């Protein structure tokens, strides 16, 4: 079953790469003077460092969203799509590694992955059509939720999990429904790692078994969700390529060289930065709303 899953993952990765390349080529052909995609070393470094810590369990979506907003790398409305497209291939590499080396019940793994794919397909179709201000408010709110989950995990206010490597019956259905919701939220820019790890721990699974589940879920759902963003053009090609170029080396370094770090301080720093970023996103939406009202009143 594990071999079949890895083959399916390779097929998903190949289809995603082909679709992305075809879409970029088609878009360039429609322009009279297509310009080469140029990205900075800093943008590549964002991909490297966020995927490095992602492989160690910190997560990449909240950290990347924060850096993008704080450094004004791309427009706010392009953040969800860019996260999904740019982090897609590094996450697939993570999934290959962790699905191969960590033991988990096959039925639980596949059921939760399928649920996350369906959630991502539904979520991306909705989010890719939202206006800028809606994305600012929802992404800011989602980041606050992510920060809250990180805080609960850091302070040990949630159960630390059990020893089970799989789920059955009602617990399995809870996990399936939860991962469906998490898959939909992934397309909004809230990472799946923290909520998925908390969910399986609450259901009595070994937290270590969460790694192939959450990375496998992301690896399958991100190509599906990313295709919807690519179709609508609601992502930054430049930033996505930079995340991909820096992300895969970051994953390989963390998985095979570093393997583990004392991440307590890093997680607390991430919580603080994510809270600040969420406030800034919501504030931007409020300021733009007021500006529009003033312009309407003056005209």
Structure description:
It is a single chain. The chain is mainly α. Helices cover 76% and strands 0% of the residues. The chain is built from 12 helices and no strands. It starts with a helix and ends with a helix.
What is the tally of helical segments? Answer: 12
Number of strands: 0
- Which range best describes the helical content: under 10%, 10-25%, 25-40%, 40-55%, 55-70% or over 70%? over 70%
Shape: globular
The figure for the number of domains is: 1
How big a fraction of the residues is strand?
Answer: under 5%
H-E string: HHHHHHHHHHHH
Radius of gyration: 19 Å
The low-confidence parts are none
Structural class from helices and strands?
Answer: mainly alpha
- Biggest beta-sheet profile: none
- The residue-averaged pLDDT reads 83
In angstroms, what separates the terminal alpha carbons? 64 Å
Features:
0% strand, globular, 299 residues, single chain
Summarize the structure.
Helix content is 76%, strand content 0%. The protein is mainly α. It starts with a helix and ends with a helix.
Secondary-structure map with pairings?
Blueprint: H1 2-29, H2 41-55, H3 61-70, H4 79-86, H5 88-101, H6 106-127, H7 132-154, H8 169-186, H9 193-202, H10 210-232, H11 237-258, H12 264-298
């Amino acid at each position: 079953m594990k071999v079949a899953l890895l083959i399916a993952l390779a097929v998903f990765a190949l289809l995603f790469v082909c679709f992305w390349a075809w879409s970029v080529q088609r878009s360039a052909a429609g322009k009279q003077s297509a310009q080469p995609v140029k990205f900075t070393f800093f943008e590549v470094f964002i991909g490297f460092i966020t995927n490095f810590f992602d492989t160690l369990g910190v997560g990449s979506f909240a950290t990347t969203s924060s850096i993008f907003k704080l450094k004004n790398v791309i427009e706010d409305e392009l953040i969800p799509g860019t996260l999904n497209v740019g982090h897609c291939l590094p996450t697939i590499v993570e999934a290959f590694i962790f699905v191969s080396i960590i033991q988990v019940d096959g039925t639980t793994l596949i059921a939760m992955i399928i649920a996350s794919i369906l959630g991502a397909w539904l979520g991306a179709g909705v989010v890719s059509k939202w206006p800028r201000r809606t994305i600012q408010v929802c992404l800011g709110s989602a980041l606050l939720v992510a920060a809250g989950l990180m805080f609960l995990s850091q302070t040990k206010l949630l159960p630390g999990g059990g020893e089970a490597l799989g789920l059955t019956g009602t617990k399995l259905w809870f996990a399936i429904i939860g991962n469906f919701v998490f898959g939909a939220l992934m397309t909004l820019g809230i990472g799946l790692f923290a909520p998925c790890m908390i969910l399986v721990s609450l259901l009595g699974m070994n937290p270590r078994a969460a790694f192939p589940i959450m990375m496998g879920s992301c690896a399958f759902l991100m190509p599906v969700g990313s295709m919807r963003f690519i179709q609508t053009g609601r992502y930054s090609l430049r930033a996505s390529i930079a995340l991909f170029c820096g992300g895969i080396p970051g994953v390989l370094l963390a998985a095979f060289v570093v393997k583990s770090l004392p991440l307590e301080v890093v997680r607390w720093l991430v919580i603080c930065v994510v809270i600040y970023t969420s406030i800034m996103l919501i504030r931007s939406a409020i300021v733009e709303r007021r500006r529009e009202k003033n312009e309407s009143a003056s005209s």
